[in-house]
Design brief:
By secondary structure, the chain is mostly helical. The chain contains 8 helices and no strands. Helix 3 runs antiparallel to helix 5, helix 5 runs parallel beside helix 7 and helix 6 packs across helix 8. The longest helix has 16 residues.
Length: about 160
């Protein structure tokens, strides 16, 4: 057997450009482009114009008394058509009055002196007690008197 001799010439070797990947691939790239860095000047102005802004509103400061009166008025308006006591107590303005806590006690008790209304669950929620005797439950004027007397004994109201 004879061995075949194979010779390679220089012009048969592949060129470097033939071995590289094509520069523009038809396969879309899955890599995300890095974000463009902002430069001072025009780019910053464009960014500021495109960015939504939060408008600054006035800070309303109201006293405890003003807040209580506002919530009481809201509660009366929203609960006027409700017949269920449970529904009246669940009105957001009523819950917010309860959230005012101990500082609202004097205001609630004074409101009961002027105009007895169903603020007893708020008083129970804030204080954790119920000074109303069982035989007076359901009688708004007697319940109000029991709470007013409780407030006077503790010097919360005069």
């Amino acid at each position: 057997m004879e061995a075949a001799l194979v010779s390679y010439e220089m012009h048969d070797t592949p060129k470097r450009s033939d071995l590289e990947w094509p520069r523009k691939s038809k396969i879309p790239s899955r890599r995300k482009k890095p974000p463009k860095t902002l430069q001072y000047g025009a780019d910053i102005i464009k960014y500021q114009q495109a960015t939504p802004r939060i408008s600054v509103c006035e800070v309303v400061t109201e006293t405890l008394h003003e807040k209580f009166n506002r919530l009481l008025a809201e509660w009366r308006e929203q609960a006027a058509h409700l017949s269920s006591i449970n529904a009246k107590v669940m009105v957001p303005a009523y819950l917010e009055m309860i959230g005012m806590g101990q500082p609202a006690l004097r205001l609630i008790l004074n409101e009961l002196k002027e105009r007895p209304t169903y603020l007893f669950p708020a008083l129970r929620a804030i204080t954790g007690i119920d000074p109303v005797p069982p035989e007076d439950r359901g009688r708004i004027s007697r319940m109000a008197n029991a709470w007013i007397e409780w407030g006077r004994q503790r010097k919360i109201i005069k």
